[in-house]
């Protein structure tokens, strides 16, 4: 399975999921309190001023519920031993607020890192340059070997690949050759 197939499956499952199922999941997760109450309260309001008061009241109620839920979560974590004794809730919640999780990298530092890495391993590039390129004859012989193997497997793609490679390489190989004279093929007696 690749990413595209996974996205197609995700999209299909999302499209088949009904609104009631999604609403029920959010309600069970506790997201319904503030928004649903605000919406139902707004429907009952007659004026803009009443609706603003309803939003403020719903927000205050939501904050009270959030604080109560936070205190309940703290008691649960303390009973499990996750929060050490004597640590304030704010200290626990914001202990990592000043931690630098990312670092801004500048172009100069990237260039410097690359230059340092090339200086540390000078042999890696020179080894690749020392390898002598095969001759035209060796390249064409290698293509013939690949073509023979591909034809023995009877796979269409395998047979097409050597032909495609040869079509790509042949102009370059032919550009290195010089045309001989007709007299070069005849020997003097």
UniProtKB/TrEMBL annotation:
Origin organism lineage: Eukaryota, Metazoa, Ecdysozoa, Arthropoda, Chelicerata
Organism superkingdom: Eukaryota
Biased composition (Acidic residues): 116-132
Annotated protein name in UniProt: Tick transposon
UniProt-annotated stretches for the region Disordered: 116-136
């Amino acid at each position: 399975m690749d990413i595209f197939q996974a996205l197609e499956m995700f999209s299909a499952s999302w499209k088949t999921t009904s609104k009631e199922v999604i609403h029920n999941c959010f309600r069970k997760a506790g997201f319904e309190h503030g928004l649903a109450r605000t919406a139902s309260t707004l429907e009952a309001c007659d004026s803009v001023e009443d609706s603003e008061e309803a939003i403020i009241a719903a927000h205050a109620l939501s904050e009270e519920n959030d604080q109560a839920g936070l205190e309940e979560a703290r008691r649960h974590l303390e009973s499990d031993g996750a929060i050490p004794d004597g640590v304030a809730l704010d200290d626990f919640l914001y202990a990592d607020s000043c931690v630098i999780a990312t670092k801004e990298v500048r172009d100069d530092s990237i260039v410097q890192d690359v230059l340092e890495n090339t200086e540390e391993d000078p042999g890696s590039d020179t080894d690749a340059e020392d390898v002598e390129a095969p001759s035209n004859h060796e390249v064409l012989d290698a293509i013939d070997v690949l073509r023979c193997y591909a034809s023995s497997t009877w796979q269409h793609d395998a047979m097409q690949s050597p032909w495609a490679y040869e079509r790509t390489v042949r102009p370059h190989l032919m550009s290195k050759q010089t045309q001989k004279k007709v007299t070069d093929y005849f020997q003097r007696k």
